[in-house]
Amino acid sequence: MAKNIDGYKLWYSGVLKGKNGVGILVDNHLRELVVEVRRVNDRLMTIKLMVGECTLNIVSAYTPQVGLDEEIKRHFREGLDDIVRSILPSERLFIGRDFNGHIGSSAVGYTEVHSGFGVGEWNGGGTSLLDFTKAFDLGIANSSFPKRDEHLVTYKSSVAKTQIDYLLLRRCDRRLCEDCKVISGETLPTQHRLLLMDIGIRIRRKKRSVRGCPRIRWGTLNKDKAQELEGRLSTMGAWRSSGDANTMWSTTADCIRKVAREVLGISSGRTGSHKGDWW
Question: N or C: which end of the chain has fewer CB within 10 A?
Answer without folding.
Answer: C
